[in-house]
Amino acid sequence: MVGAVAVTKQLVIHPERCTACRMCELACSFEHEGVFNPNRSRIKVEIFAEEAFYLPMACYHCDDYPCGQVCPTEAIIKDPNNRWITVVDNKCIGCKMCMQACPFGVMGFSAEVGVAQNCDLCGGNPQCVKFCSPNALEFLDVEETRHHKRSMFAAKVREAMKGEAAVL
Amino acid sequence: MTSPIPQQAHYVIIGNSAAGLNAVDATRARDLSSSLLLIADEDTHAYSRVATPYYISREIDDSTLFYKSPEYYQQRRVTTLLGHRVVALDADNHQVKLAEGTRISYGKLLLATGSTPSRPPIQGLEKVKVFPHWTLAQAKDILERTCLSESAAVLGGGFISLLTLNAMKSLKPSIQFTVIERLPQVMPNLLDEQAARMLEQRMTTQGIQVKTGVEAIELAELPDGKTKVTLSDGTEQRVDMVVLGTGVRPNVDFLAGSGLQIQRGILVNERMETNLPDVYAAGDCAESFDLLSGERVVHAIWPTAVEQGRVAGANMAGGASAYPGSLSMNVLDIFGLTSASIGIFQDQAGLEMLRFFDFKRGIYRKLALREGKRIVGLIAVGSPEEVHYMGTIQSVIRRQIDVSPWKDKLLQNPNLYGRIVLEASKGKSSSPLPTV
């Protein structure tokens, strides 16, 4: 496997599609905690009401994960295969340095268990995605994500070049 | 693996904690072939100093405390010399000298010797048994004595003192504690007066006696085995144990006469180089500079040691890594109150302070602004939720983003920080969000 790039999936967020219905939060808290409680969700919708801008936020599973680098007990690990970040509960001492280090503010804390808590992508079957009716959340192969990005960018270029003489 | 003592190594790292081990990783990421020798005076496998309070309260087991795998050194081709103290540096000959007299030659040397609890000038301090808390051995001592004690005086009301107290209290809730802090408030490096009052109140309601603006002037052992602590206000305490938590100082005494430039700590530049060739320093023993003020500073905190260790390790192996300067930051979650601070937050001339209180939810926030528009620091006290936005605000501070358009909303809605970073990133680099 040395040198091979593992196929991995990631959570893709489309803020422009989000309606702030917060079903993702309910799905998340029910999946993980068995209750419908947005406060205990690992995904949170940030709501900027005046501008009607809504942004669901959850762990980005960064490549250089600052949470794990600062962890004083190495309780935050990255899976070498799928590249996801996991908090190992019985190693976490609850010191919260990871929360302080996370540049996106998406490392959470479970007051019940006393450990840090991030989005674990429901082990590969994220419930938030399932219940997101406007499709603001998707769970895609990294390759697929890149393909989407490419075609979106190409569409923008095409739009910008409309009216100009065809080159080909 | 600890014998025989090698006579030389290309890389010699003194220190077996955050700075030293992160330097090992950063060095080995670039150079796996050259010899690497790690020397430490403690005779234990690497353990996490941050975790020792949780060891005292028996909340964790050894596998958490000893956070590196047993194969850690072997996997990185590190030769270890544990339980050996370096007593001198001979930079002219590129050598360090061990306590037993052996000399070891180095190609590159990293000083990551950390710090040690300071001993304040209290009469009788050398004659009685006191309990500092820094090493694992000391934590074990505290654990043992706590089980036998019914009362304890904690000298110093700083971070380590209160964490230790909290751990002892979890282990044995019946102990009567008295905290003695010389300054007018507890946690002077972490909290402002307001926040400290909130914490003191919590402590008091949990039966802890908090005495601020008072210091211990004399310690004496009594015939019944108790220790008498005489305070500057004329009162005295008779306790079963005395915890010494009056701060730490860099471990640099052995470097006197080596030619190294030392003020409080070993002076380093942004590459973590000292004034001597091929000698680097990182972590608690190093004096680098503050990210915001540019002033020389020793920030004896774990995240700083991690960062500096990485920079030093990379540069020792031929890299070109630069340290941006350190940003002080701390989180404390004790007595049911979470408090966090970052950067500069004490009232001072030239800084505008914005304050926010939510009495119902028990939240206090304070923002320090430079030129009325750039955040240089923050304190937040309340629930663990308050720590959430610390990372985002760190980006705002590090990049010194102009926050004036959001100024009136910042305190009420901390979620804005993410938005501010996002706005500032627009056009500059690609968005950090994996949006399609």
How would you sum up this structure, described in words?
The complex is a heterodimer of chains A (168) and B (436). By secondary structure, chain A is of the alpha+beta class. Chain A has 5 helices and 8 strands. In chain A, strand 4 and strand 5 (85-87) form a beta hairpin. Mean pLDDT of chain A is 87; it is low at 1-6. With 436 residues, chain B is of the alpha/beta class. Chain B has 10 helices and 25 strands. In chain B, strands 1, 2, 3, 4, 5, 6 and 18 form a 7-stranded mixed beta sheet that branches. A 5-stranded parallel beta sheet of chain B has the order 8-15-9-10-11, with helices on one face. In chain B, helix 9 packs parallel to helix 10. Mean pLDDT of chain B is 93; it is low at 429-436. Classes of the chains: A alpha+beta (168), B alpha/beta (436). At the A-B interface, strand 1, helix 2, helix 3 and helix 5 of A face helix 3, helix 8, strand 21, strand 22 and helix 9 of B.
The helix/strand class of chain A is alpha+beta
> Distance between termini of chain A?
43 Å
- Count of helix runs of chain B: 10
How confident is the prediction overall: mean pLDDT of chain A? 87
The appropriate CATH architecture of the largest domain in chain A is 2-Layer Sandwich
Radius of gyration of chain B equals 23 Å
Q: Give the helix level of chain A as a range of percent.
A: 25-40%
Q: What labels would you give this structure?
A:
heterodimer; A: Alpha-Beta Plaits; Alpha-Beta Plaits; 2 domains; 8 strands; B: 436 residues; alpha/beta; five-stranded parallel sheet; 25 strands
